[in-house]
Amino acid sequence: xxxxxxxxxLLGNLLKExxxxxxxxxxxxxxxxxxxxxxxxxxxxxxxxxxxILEQTINKIKQYTETxxxxxxxxxxxxxxxxxxxxxxxxxxxxxVGDQYSNINQFIPYAYxxxxxxxxxxxxxxxxxxIPRLDNSGDLxxxxxxxxxxxxxxxxxxxxxxxxxxxxxxxxxxYCRGEIEENYKPTIGISIVxxxxxxxxxxxLMLYLLDLGGLKSFAKIRKFYYSYSNIILIxxxxxxVETLNNVKGWIEESRQFIKDKSIPILLIGNKIDLIxxxxxxxxxxxxxxxxxxxxxxxTSALTGEGIDELxxxxxxxxx
Length: 319
Hints:
Elements (H helix, E strand, L loop, with lengths): L2 H15 L3 E8 L4 E6 L5 H10 L1 H9 L7 E5 L3 E7 L6 E8 L8 H15 L10 E2 L5 E2 L13 E8 L5 H10 L12 E11 L2 E10 L6 H8 L4 E7 L3 H5 L1 H11 L7 E6 L8 H14 L3 E3 L8 H12 L1
Parallel strand pairs: 8-10, 8-11, 11-12, 12-13
Antiparallel strand pairs: 1-2, 1-5, 3-4, 4-5, 6-7, 9-10
Helix pairs in contact: 1-4
InterPro entries: P-loop_NTPase (IPR027417), Small_GTP-bd (IPR005225), Small_GTPase (IPR001806)
GO molecular function, one term: GTP binding
Keywords: Nucleotide-binding
């Protein structure tokens, strides 16, 4: 199946879950449509008018492609638009289109799940085009259909946070797939990965790993997903002491938005394969973990060292 077909199937799935949206588009930075999906009656003339409205926005994005991911809303007499700039990862723009009555803001956190999948597809990475369902209030439904052997209590959501480039996505990849992507691409807001575990013949677990983008510009998206989490993993990079110094900020952010204050938080020092003498940083990290009464683990997402121990402990804590 071609990338175009995969993208259009993904956008089609999005529109099925978001009844108030009338179209979803992926544009290149020249304003040409890469892929689109729309409801019946939403014709090419309307789409052309929308791309014209976005022209000025695209020109601004071209000037600042190396800085950060941008997003924004635009309104006309007939439509509301929300766009996510993907140009830090791939030269494209993802656009949601709602009519003048739709509450497009409620779909913004949801849109970032799709944006991450679009980025993966455009960068030739294997990704599922399935997206979580929404309930009537616009909240995510993060669970499969249950059978007698797979109950809701056997499901947990794990939020993985930390500064940019500390190895959050690589940790998830190594745990879930046994390998990591060679070419690093920062997560656009959020990536959700499923991990099914067969504990015994009649007992299964489902983990949803919520890999939350570490850029400051994604704070408004992260706060939405903290509320779904059953446990928080905070990562820092052993080779960059500033990422350890940032951990207190991540603790404060997570505690601000977690509704259940009893949710466990784990501190993870990653990239131990890249540093020979880590005693000083390890001591600082251990002191921090002791201060907050957090378990502390050391891992290498590249080699897999420490990952089984981390997730074994985490699963025993959750279930």
